[in-house]
Amino acid sequence: MYNKVVTDYLDETVQRCPKKIGFVDQEGEVSFKKFRDYSYAVASEIINRNVFKKPIAIYLDKSTKCLYSFMGVVYSGNFYTPLDVDMPIERVRKICEVLEPEYIITDAAHEDTVSGLGVPLILLDNLDGSFNLEAIKNVNRKIIDTDLVYVLFTSGSTGVPKGVSISHRNVITYMEWSAEAFGFNETTVFGNQTPFYFSMSVLDIFQTLKSAATINIIPKKLFSFPAELLEYIDANGINTIYWVPSALCQVANLKALENPKHLGKLHSVLFAGEVMPTKQLNMWRRALPDAMYANLFGPTEVTDICSYYILNRELKDSESVPIGQACDNMSLLILNDKNKEVKKGEIGELCARGASLAYGYYNSSDKTKMTFVQNPLNQSYPETIYRTGDLVYVNELDEIIYVSRKDFQIKHMGYRIELGEIEAAVSSLDGIQRACCLYDKEKSRIVLFYSGCLEMRDIKRGIKTLIPKYMIPNDFVKMEEMPLNLNGKIDRQKLNNMILVGGPNEG
Hints:
Layout: H1 7-16, E1 21-25, E2 28-31, H2 32-48, E3 55-59, H3 64-75, E4 79-83, H4 89-99, E5 103-106, H5 111-114, E6 121-123, H6 133-140, E7 148-154, E8 162-167, H7 168-182, E9 189-192, H8 201-211, E10 214-217, H9 226-235, E11 240-243, H10 245-253, E12 268-271, H11 278-287, E13 292-297, E14 307-310, E15 325-326, E16 330-335, E17 348-354, E18 360-361, H12 365-371, E19 372-374, E20 384-394, E21 400-405, E22 409-412, E23 415-418, H13 419-427, E24 432-440, E25 445-452, H14 456-463, E26 475-479, H15 492-500
Parallel strand pairs: 1-10, 3-4, 3-5, 5-6, 9-10, 9-11, 11-12, 12-13, 25-26
Antiparallel strand pairs: 1-2, 7-8, 8-18, 13-14, 14-15, 16-17, 17-20, 19-20, 20-21, 22-23, 24-25
Helix pairs in contact: 1-8, 2-3, 2-6, 7-8, 10-11
């Protein structure tokens, strides 16, 4: 059956298995039928306010309640934007200035926080659970697959957040491919780690709807206690995780994998969002050798993912994990500075085209035009590609290998250097937990931040056979633990601020 809009997935699942538990959080379990009823109630409230094809923001704790608010917005013919309750209120204000939402859906617990933003509120506490099914069906007939589902905001270089605009067709393309690639079905139990305003959560959420799977929203506090985290995974029958590498590394670095008895049900380990250090990945593979491991790669602008690599060979700790090949109905170009395709082995910028490509940035045509551009290899008709800013190359096995961000490429001592290559070399050493390399432009020095038990001399000795002498960091900053941002990734901005204020160094 052709799915026109993402709520078709939920309707089909309710028809097939209405009583199956689809959603688990700290408040309890919710069946697909009950979930849709909750979504309908939210939709009816919005429809009663005569809002159509407009942005509606959600300001709620990460929960099932948050998810059915998303679907309620979509059933009403509008599109949603998650706002993180842990986000500084000034960032929330900036997002609202760009988005101009018609309403913010929230609850009594958060009403005071957002009441000063000048946006009308819809309080879930005031809904009585009733809904108007005929009105919802009438709206559904007006929605087409090119309409927006959501706008997710990412950081902007100017300090103004950028809202990535994603359509029903974008999400459906991603879900159809990923279900086939990874075999998601009604037995899949996702252990959700990523925030809902982060594009990685899209897979957990919409595959649950499509495949009649279950999404278990893991309590955030457990990620600071790996042993308890694995016990939770075991006790809740979680068999599939799609996490940022920092979360996987935390489990590996704190020795939780040495006793893998709680990992018996886990058969699929997917990761994305930042570079996965091969050393920690190999720790997982040794502890759980029969699981499927996959590196998913892509920005929010391609509905989360444009390439993937299912591990099918051994990798040395010093090797990079490939990002593999293009997803179905997506195509990847690797272009040099002259907008020509590079040869095998040459580094170029990864560009993506295809059915998962976002429209661009909401209310920001200037920013959209900078990275959503005409395909330079095609001058015959309009064809948009997205310039990711990621530098990659194709190896001898025809696998795409990520090198670094374009803005992580530096010129140092006359050499062009990819900071990601230094990070990979340091990360491969025994005794290193995480590594992050930045460049102090003012002093023309490469700065390595790292956590682990090694000292500067040990690191220098360990990497001298892995990278050229001119790439050896000038400054070494040992951290008790690496700072993480709200997405769970290494907080490069915080580390960069340490450089700006003249933070400590060892050499």
